[in-house]
Specification:
Blueprint lengths: L14 H11 L1 H12 L4 H9 L17 H13 L1 H6 L3 H12 L7 H15 L2 E2 L2 E2 L13
Antiparallel strand pairs: 1-2
Length: about 150
């Protein structure tokens, strides 16, 4: 078995190590991002910026740079039409399912985009507990599936 292959378990970290690493490296940045979305003047503003994958500086999040701008605009338009339904979401899971239904089938929109967009909108709606979704880990986390 090659070192570094998916079956090689010698370099795998425990969940606790991964969580500690995340807390050290990313927690502060994530909290600032969520606070910025939480403070958007309206849900419509938060949805638009989340759908366009825009950060506080008006720039696109780096991991969404390959998504065509026109596609992001269409996703923003579709999600904006669903504002009443978004407001009715009672959990992160409900919100994620709605975002998946509305934009998940668009060619070029993947699981990461759907999750991140739901995460940011969820912040504005108050559906996150201590900066984490109320429905558990993201679907794109290593090996995690619903």
């Amino acid at each position: 078995m090659r070192k570094g292959s998916p079956r090689d378990r010698s370099n795998r970290r425990s969940w606790q190590e991964l969580i500690r690493h995340y807390d050290r490296v990313f927690r502060r940045r994530t909290r600032m991002e969520l606070e910025w979305f939480r403070q958007q003047p309206s849900l419509a503003d938060a949805v638009r910026r989340a759908a366009l994958a825009e950060n506080a500086k008006g720039r696109r999040y780096r991991h969404h740079c390959r998504i065509n701008r026109d596609l992001l605009e269409e996703a923003a338009r579709r999600l904006s039409k669903e504002l009443p339904a978004l407001r009715k979401a009672r959990s992160f899971h409900d919100l994620h399912r709605l975002v998946e239904r509305v934009v998940g089938g668009m060619h070029g929109i993947g699981e990461l985009y759907v999750y991140d967009t739901s995460f940011r909108i969820g912040s504005r709606l108050g559906l996150l507990a201590r900066g984490r979704p109320t429905a558990g880990l993201p679907p794109h986390a290593a090996g995690v599936r619903d």
